[in-house]
UniProtKB/TrEMBL annotation:
It comes from the Eukaryota. CDD domains: pyrophosphatase (cd00412). This is inorganic diphosphatase. InterPro entries: Pyrophosphatase, Pyrophosphatase_sf. GO terms for molecular function: inorganic diphosphate phosphatase activity; magnesium ion binding. It holds the Pfam family Pyrophosphatase. Belongs to the PPase family. Keywords: Hydrolase, Magnesium, Metal-binding. One of its GO terms (biological process) is phosphate-containing compound metabolic process. The keyword Hydrolase applies. Its EC number is 3.6.1.1. Signal peptide: none annotated.
Length: 275
């Protein structure tokens, strides 16, 4: 039966590259020698098992243990290979949550990242599924209207209704649900939806050459504001839901609303960690 040698517990010579952890530097992490009678793994630190399962390291390890090419593979080698596959599968299955994992951006509250839920011209009401982070179909609009501009939310913000802050982004083209872009706040549309506050940030795409020079809500043509207002007043009428839209407010009001929602989100995270 092959026996382990002392070199198994000692790093072999080599140069460690900055920012990497090679197999050579994992040898000292063994807590006790490999039991050659059972060919079972010793208790290793869990996080290095994936490194130990790399083909180059396993080849060197088998040679040090005295295995030849004709020898059958030990059980623990199959276990390591299975662990490697499961580790890779686990990494691939962890998706970023657009609300919590996407940064709002260093320019907030003036310029910020936003996630698109509904493209311009759509009659489908998409929305974020807060549990999974996926974009789901909420409903088809009852009224004969379509969204006049791209619509979404600002990540790492929180409003009184426990949702992220909504934003309407004015730009030339519709974009696909689930993507994110840089937006610049130019105003605030105060809105009451069925008796609850549901304000909307009015923004332009910061990377659209036609709109990026806009600085305030007053820069928009009056008919554009009327179009936006009329859409939100009408899009729920056939559902017997009441929506009231107030006068548009300037960019400074939008900055305050975004900052307030950022503060609420930060408080929410702190409270969640305490619990």
């Amino acid at each position: 039966m092959p026996q382990h040698g002392p070199s198994l517990l000692t790093p072999f010579s080599g140069t460690k590259r900055a920012g990497t952890r090679t197999a050579a530097y994992c040898f000292p992490l063994l807590e006790r020698p490999i039991h050659s009678s059972s060919l079972c793994l010793p208790p290793l630190r869990f996080e290095i098992c994936a490194l130990w399962s790399s083909p180059s390291f396993l080849s060197r390890l088998l040679l040090q243990l005295g295995f030849r090419n004709s020898d059958p593979l030990p059980l623990w080698l199959h276990q390591l290979r299975l662990f490697r596959k499961l580790s890779l599968l686990k990494k691939r299955s962890i998706a970023a949550h657009p609300w919590h994992d996407l940064e709002i951006g260093p320019g907030a509250p003036k310029i910020f990242n936003c996630v698109i839920e509904i493209p311009k011209g759509s009659k489908v009401k998409y929305e974020l599924d807060k549990k999974t982070g996926l974009i789901k179909v909420d409903r088809i609009l009852y009224s004969s209207v379509v969204y006049p501009h791209n619509y979404g939310f600002i990540p790492r913000t929180l409003c009184e209704d426990n949702d992220p802050l909504d934003v309407l982004i004015i730009m030339q083209e519709p974009v696909v649900p689930g993507c994110f872009l840089r937006a610049k706040a130019i105003g605030l549309m105060p809105m009451i939806d069925q008796g609850e506050k549901d304000d909307k940030i009015i923004a332009v795409c910061a990377d659209d050459p036609e709109y990026r020079h806009y600085q305030d809500i007053k820069d928009l043509p009056p008919h554009r504001l009327a179009e936006i207002r009329r859409f939100f007043e009408d899009y729920k009428k056939n559902e017997n839901k009441e929506v009231a839209v107030d006068d548009f407010l300037p960019a400074s009001a939008a900055y305050d609303a975004i900052q307030h929602s950022m503060d609420l989100y930060a408080d929410y995270i702190v409270e969640s960690l305490r619990r």
